[in-house]
Amino acid sequence: MILGYILENVLGFFFALALFILPPSSRCTRETERRLPYVERVRGVLIQGCSSFYDSAIVLCFSSQIASIVMLSRLDYGVSASGMGDSTAKITWAVSLLTLLPLLYVAYLSQLLQGPPSNKQAARQVSKQKLRFGLFSVCWLLTLYPFYSKVIGYFGPSLIGNDEGQVISDHDWHIIQAVCTANVKDISDRELVAMQLFGVTGSLFVSSCTLIQVIWLGLHRQHEDSKLVQRVKRYRISIGPKLTILFLVLLPIFAVSQIWTILRMRQFQEGIARNTGNGYLDSQWTFGQVASITVFAPVAVECGFHWVNG
């Protein structure tokens, strides 16, 4: 399903970048005023496509988080380790973060989906944005267990060693490694550190953004007329473009790091499967691969419909 995850992140970045470059009519410059009708038409198509993208991405993210929790909990609590080695666990951790990252563009940067000014549409846009962030929060809550599993897996006590309570000795583990990883490019210490660094940092970044937004929404709802809330609101508006640029830089970096983690671990798994005389089925097109791509088909349909009928 790696292609579906890549497509989700590419679409999320594309819509965020395009909507950032094409400002709403209230912020158009003299240069863009001449092309205002065309700009508004394109922006309207992008807004509808981005909204459809978010709905599709929520479905993919939610289902991926549920699958990650089921697989990791079976491994962590000793229910069953069938098909869940260390490499598969690392891939699962990466997928959990990778499917959540593109949702942050729409859930946090609400100004990107600002349409033409209208009193009737203003209330609807606010309600829809609250719904988007609510759905994002549900997916974020589901990522907490994969994040917990990731931290324990990276920084918890090892089951390999010669001390009491460890399940296999260093000597026996080296023998297994020598047999299974012969002629296979092993995961180096630098690669492992990079996986740990980007995986944990990315999760902490998403969690920090989510908690800040939750606190802000709570303050805004309970103390909307207070001087503090109004001051913070003006500050958030003033740093909006800078915050968007920050997201457009950091989120792709985190996404690329997780894609690299998945591809590198799959390469390692494929080498081990080849050494042990087993087939590597994850590279084949299956139901999951097709479903993860076609889930975004409504985005193209929505964009085409609004372009023709806009």
Gist?
The chain has 310 residues and is mainly α. It has 12 helices and no strands.
Strand count, sense and barrel status of the largest sheet are: none
DSSP helix fraction: over 70%
Total helical segments: 12
Shape verdict: globular
- In round numbers, the mean pLDDT is 81
Task: Give me the Rg, rounded.
Answer: 23 Å
| N-to-C order of helices and strands | HHHHHHHHHHHH
List the uncertain runs.
none
Distance between the termini: 34 Å
Number of strands: 0
Structural class of the secondary structure composition?
Answer: mainly alpha
Walkthrough of the structure:
By secondary structure, the chain is mostly helical. The chain is 76% helix and 0% strand. Helix 1 packs antiparallel against helix 10, helix 4 (86-98) packs antiparallel against helix 10 (240-275) and helix 8 (189-222) packs antiparallel against helix 10. The longest helix is centred in the first third of the chain and has 41 residues, at 36-76. The protein starts with a helix and ends with a helix.
